[in-house]
Amino acid sequence: MSGRKLTSTAVAGIILAASCLAFAQNAMTTAVKTGYAPVNGLNLYYEMHGTGEPLILLHGGLGAAEMFEPILPSLSNNRQVITVDLQGHGHTADIARPLSYERMADDIAALIKYLGLERADIMGYSVGGGVALRTAIQHPDRVRKLVVVSAAFRRDGWYPEIQAGMSQMNAGSAEQMKQTPMYQLYSRLAPKPSDWPQLLTKLGQMLGEDYDWSKDVAAIKLPTLLVFGDADAVRTAHAVRFFELLGGGKKDGGWDGSGMSSARLTILPGITHYTIFSSQMLVSMVNPFLDAPMPRAK
Prior knowledge:
There is one protein chain. The protein is built from 10 helices and 8 strands. It is of the alpha/beta class. The protein has a domain at about 35-160 and about 210-290: Rossmann fold. The chain has an 8-stranded mixed sheet with strand order 1-2-4-3-5-6-7-8, with helices on both faces. Helix 1 (about 5-15) packs across helix 5 (about 160-165) and helix 3 (about 100-115) packs across helix 4. The chain is globular and about 60 Å long. Residues about 1-5 and about 20-30 have low confidence and may be disordered.
């Protein structure tokens, strides 16, 4: 493998999982409820923080739930935050099925049912953002509000160099990727650390597939918040198009706000794909959105 290829692969991994240096050695000091939900053949690991309206939090690819530790106290101050380790990530062991946004969305819907919840808010970052989006598309009755952070509704929403790096993620890069913080996190949490090459292969296959959810996004009726950095891995023009598909940016909102849609778009200044998941600016946008009353049906 050439050095150039390793660099592309590593960049893709960091962009999907964010910089694990910020959280790989941290441990939560507050008491949390943990468990495994038997859903769709998986034993899906979850943690429950705080009390109140439930919010399910979904991490990026090659990451784990604990990547959100810097913002968990602020998010769970007046709500119950449920963090999840997706298939093959963190504490959740892999099973004999491909990785896909659609299947993982079914897992989250099944988790909501397993926990005895009628519905929940869902917030996902990067790969987790894609899973959150697909959950809202496939199981709208299970979702109250949706927050998508640094994720694309179409593959070409990512910058070309990011798409190239995603396509190069495979078992061949597994050994050299062991030098990264992503592997340090995985080896510490995974039930079978030897599955690392398998995770890279499956994730690379999923991320290498073309997708376009434009029609599905246009049909979403749930209150939705989109959050991106102004130096994100997702093109800013794509973020705006995402907002427009949800009904935003079509006309003047009016002096009384009557022309506003139920979608919201936030571009955080001085923020990249690597820093957005732990930013307090992210929390300052998410909390008011989730706390606001549900909009009246139009």
